[in-house]
Design brief:
single chain; mainly alpha; Tetracycline Repressor, domain 2; 8 helices; elongated
């Protein structure tokens, strides 16, 4: 990696902490864009895919790491957003309108499909432009039923 051992251990306890630090930093950047681009799913997705694409080599390396379950990190990020206190009603409405099955199964299908698309995109080196991957995801369900709501709204 081009850094000496002393410099590495000055910043990290071990490779696990380094990987977790990268993962946490990426996710915190994505949350920042959630607050900035919360008026529409499209703007939110575009902002996040621009970030991920700009660091695609790092994302690809982390996704292949045996120390981080990156698919789980994507799923956790999505779950935290859509199941937050101020999103529960919107999520329930979205799932009810898009699926005619019990909520817990609808949630699983939704999370799995979006996580799968994002994971495949990352594993493929994020070749598609941010707009294209956003359009792919937006074509999977009717997102008109989804508007991010803030408690202040």
């Amino acid at each position: 990696a081009g850094i000496n051992r002393g410099t590495f251990y000055l910043h990290y306890e071990d490779k696990y902490q380094m990987n977790e630090s990268f993962r946490s930093e990426i996710i915190s950047q994505l949350y920042i864009f959630l607050e900035k681009e919360r008026e529409s799913p499209r703007k939110f997705m575009l902002a996040n895919f621009y970030i991920l694409r700009s660091i695609k080599r790092l994302i690809n390396a982390l996704s292949q790491s045996h120390y981080i379950d990156f698919r789980d990190a994507i799923r956790e990020f999505l779950s935290n957003i859509i199941l937050s206190e101020n999103q529960k009603e919107t999520t329930h409405h979205f799932l009810s309108e898009n699926f005619q099955i019990p909520h817990k199964y609808a949630l699983e299908i939704f999370l799995s499909s979006i996580e799968g698309i994002i994971s495949l995109w990352i594993a493929g080196g994020a070749q598609e432009e941010s707009e294209e991957i956003t359009d792919i995801i937006l074509s999977t369900y009717n997102y008109e039923y989804w508007r991010y709501q803030s408690k202040e709204d």
